[in-house]
């Protein structure tokens, strides 16, 4: 039985990725060379296509030098451009590595305006994020999401996981430090814990402010403690974790 037309086309482009006989462009990532085809790459990425227009060096030697992108991430991009598929398991096997890879692929998909790649990366992230919430890679991944993604797609998914395990995250210095560094993250956590049905809405709302005494970041258990003691209770980041400043 013959393959459907789209499958035959993808089989052809997949073969082209491994055969540079007719390649007419090069991507150079710090010595890692990718021999590619403009009609495959430039039709799917406007930023990469723009590099070959005008009086740029790239238009003269048909070589794009990528200084900031990791070779393994570029390889994932190239594989997608030729095969229209995303298989992160081929690059990473541990859950934490998969999580970070999905985030980085989403970021590069947005950077080079490859919408299909970002969509698949979002799906991969959504699939693994719940299982990776206690992995050491989760908080670094959260930092990348808030510093390098321009939209709310991954943020909204990640915040749901954070609020579902808010007590565990607030006990981690790495998380509270990240909230201190990224105000948008702290605000999202505060808003999410007050939404109906969220764990933080059961007499536990957490807000972030600065300690008047030491200037350090603090986590304030405003709602639960005010109900219990009639006054605000704060946990200062400069004091032992069991110390309450009342």
Mind explaining what this structure looks like?
InterPro entries: BTB/POZ_dom, SKP1/BTB/POZ_sf. Residues 23-90 form the BTB domain. This is BTB domain-containing protein. By secondary structure, the protein is mostly helical. The protein contains 13 helices and 6 strands. It has a domain at 1-85: Potassium Channel Kv1.1, Chain A, CATH 3.30.710. The strands form 2 sheets. Strands 2-1-3 form a 3-stranded mixed beta sheet. The chain has a 3-stranded antiparallel beta sheet with strand order 4-5-6. Strand 1 and strand 2 form a beta hairpin. Helix 6 (95-111) packs antiparallel against helix 7 (115-128), helix 6 runs parallel beside helix 8 and helix 11 packs across helix 12.
Number of strand segments: 6
H-E order: HEEHHHEHHHHHHHHEEHE
Radius of gyration based on Cα positions = 23 Å
| Gap from first CA to last CA | 75 Å
**CATH topology of the domain at 1-85, what is it called?**
Potassium Channel Kv1.1, Chain A
Global outline:
elongated
| CATH level 1 name of the domain at 1-85 | Alpha Beta
Q: What average pLDDT do the residues reach?
A: 80
Structural class of the secondary structure composition? mainly alpha
Strand content: 5-15%
H/I helix tally: 13
* Main sheet characteristics: 3 strands, mixed
The CATH homologous superfamily of the domain at 1-85 is named Potassium Channel Kv1.1, Chain A
Low-confidence stretches: 200-210, 217-246
Which strand order spans the largest sheet, edge to edge or round the barrel?
2-1-3
Instruction: Using the 3D structure, state the CATH architecture of the domain at 1-85.
Output: 2-Layer Sandwich
Q: Could you estimate the helical fraction of the residues in percent?
A: 40-55%
